[in-house]
Design goal:
Structural class: alpha+beta
CATH architecture of the largest domain: Sandwich
Distance between the termini: 9 Å
Number of helices: 12
Number of strands: 25
CATH superfamily of the largest domain: tricorn interacting facor f3 domain
CATH topology of the largest domain: Immunoglobulin-like
CATH class of the largest domain: Mainly Beta
Length: 520
């Protein structure tokens, strides 16, 4: 974890992590631009309507289930996978054709409801024309067989640049925010969540683990087939498949969840005692947020230099190197990723610009795990972040409006620290009891769904009995920092980093150094 200088002085660790309303499908248009009836077949949109990623996701249908069949021919970490995905979906308009997101190496064949379908690749889109149109409301299956994807060696210098990556022990996935379609064809946006089945065909003696619960494991000659079921809806960016020389540490059932960790076999003895803290962290979050939202949880440790940790659903991803640091650095990172199972995984963002909902909440719980909300340490840290808040907004955009889709802009310090500061302000405004009720209501009401910042504001207003629209809009979207409730003496300190007439006088790199950002 990285702490800012003031936080160190206060004995607090300030860490940050990796980690709009729903946009309806645009009306279908004919060749002359005229609006078509919803019952008249037309192409589905090549993007779901995301503000930061206009071509990510697709329109005209919603996915209900993915069945991913992946064959790992050998145990070599460098090998490509040969995969088949069957996507069960329903049409939200009459479709003459539809798109999937895909940027892998190759595609073998495509069928729609068992019939061969024409397809072509356009950039990172797989454009599919079925043998006959799909009616509005119709359920249908698209099968893309023998797609190929190859792993890369990850590097902190290429942030989030290796969604399918190799390690000395095998391979794993890190697909946030838009990397899933670089592995398998999908509707790659968190607004379209679906259940998953994973069928992993690997050499005998090789371990294979995926999101969810192990439903079956069987031998097939010199091969082994592992089947995992992830019944709760999941965004594609949260999918995880790890294959190689790994061991599964079974910790039994805790709060109705099966707890298991996955580590390189050669490192089990070193890592197992540290990862065991997860059960007490489940207790801590259960007390604050209610029931854990999935059937299983655990940590995946990989011997790779990535520069981040990641909340892949039910199996959070960590670098082995994290666990060589002193406490509380690695324990707080673990708590952050566990918090994401509620904030970001169970309740996913509607737009990627809503990512503060993920990171601001996970940072809030990480920081309050280290120091109680009313402690001098936490209060001092929030005052320090507050003093920098105008600069954070100037460099990185308001909390709820990252400036671009570059991952360094999406996962910027203001999303983490500024998001936590906005939650601190909300707690100051409505009091601790109502704040806790807002949090529990949010994760319960939108469990298994995608939700927007407008939805969060509505929940906070309803629970508190106050119209918080203007208050939260200012904290999340204004260019300047609002007054902090309960702290009229807090000021945005220009002496810390003065603004020049032609813009900020410091560089973004210098500002990041004041609030170092460890992505997780």
């Amino acid at each position: 974890m990285i702490a800012n200088p003031a936080a160190r002085a206060l004995g607090a660790v300030a860490a940050s992590v990796l980690g709009a309303c729903a946009v309806a499908d645009e009306p279908a248009l004919g060749a002359a631009g005229e609006a078509l009836s919803a019952d008249e077949p037309a192409p589905g949109a090549a993007g779901i309507g995301d503000v930061l990623y206009p071509t990510l996701g697709n329109g005209g249908y919603e996915v209900d289930h993915y069945q991913l069949e992946l064959r790992y021919e050998t145990a070599a970490p460098s090998q490509a996978i040969d995969g088949t995905v069957t996507i069960s979906a329903h049409a939200t308009q009459a479709l003459s054709r539809l798109d999937l997101d895909f940027a892998g190496d190759a595609v073998g064949a495509v069928t729609v409801d068992g019939e061969p379908a024409a397809y072509r690749r356009e950039g990172e889109e797989l454009v599919i024309t079925p043998a006959r149109p799909i009616g509005r409301g119709q359920r249908f299956d698209v099968t893309v067989s023998h797609f190929v994807a190859s792993p890369k060696v990850p590097s902190p210098a290429d942030f989030l640049g290796a969604p399918f990556f190799s390690t000395p022990d095998g391979t794993a996935w890190a697909a946030q925010p838009y990397g899933a379609h670089r592995i398998f064809p999908s509707n790659d946006h968190p607004r379209d969540k679906a259940s998953f089945t994973f069928l992993l065909d690997v050499p005998a003696g090789t371990t294979a683990v995926a999101n969810g619960v192990l439903a079956d494991q069987r031998a097939a000659g010199d091969r082994a087939i592992w089947r995992y079921e992830q019944p709760e809806p999941m965004a594609t960016e949260l999918a995880q498949v790890v294959v190689g020389a790994f061991s599964v540490i079974d910790r039994g059932r805790h709060h109705d969840a099966l707890v298991r960790d996955v580590t390189p076999t050669r490192l089990v003895a070193a890592l197992e005692p540290k990862l065991a803290i997860v059960t007490s962290q489940l207790d801590w979050l259960h007390e604050r947020l209610g029931d854990y939202p999935f059937k299983t949880y655990g940590s995946l440790a990989v011997d790779a230099r990535m520069g981040f940790a990641l909340e892949t659903q039910t199996l959070s991803l960590f670098e082995v190197a994290f666990f060589g640091r002193p406490q509380p650095q690695w324990t707080s990172v673990m708590l952050h990723e566990l918090s994401h199972q509620w904030f970001g995984d169970s309740v996913a963002p509607t737009q990627w610009s809503d990512v503060w909902q993920n990171e601001g909440h996970a940072t809030w719980y990480e920081l309050t795990y280290l120091n109680p909300p009313d402690s001098a340490e936490l209060t001092g840290l929030m005052q320090y972040v507050y003093s920098l808040s105008d600069l954070l907004r100037a460099f990185f955009g308001p909390v709820g409006a990252p400036p671009s889709g570059d991952p360094n802009d999406v996962f910027n310090p203001n999303v983490y620290y500024g998001g936590a500061l906005a939650l601190y302000a909300l707690r100051q405004q409505i009091g601790d009891a109502l704040f806790q009720e807002v949090e529990r209501t949010w994760v319960a009401k939108y469990r298994g769904r995608s939700a927007s910042t407008a939805d969060f504001i509505a929940v906070a207003s309803e629970v508190s009995g106050q119209d918080l629209s203007a208050f939260l809009h200012a904290w999340l979207y204004d260019a300047t920092t609002p007054p902090m409730p309960g702290h009229p003496d807090w000021t945005v300190a220009p002496a810390l980093a003065p603004l020049a007439a032609d813009g900020p006088s410091m560089t973004a790199q210098e500002l990041r150094a004041l609030l170092p950002l460890q992505r997780h």
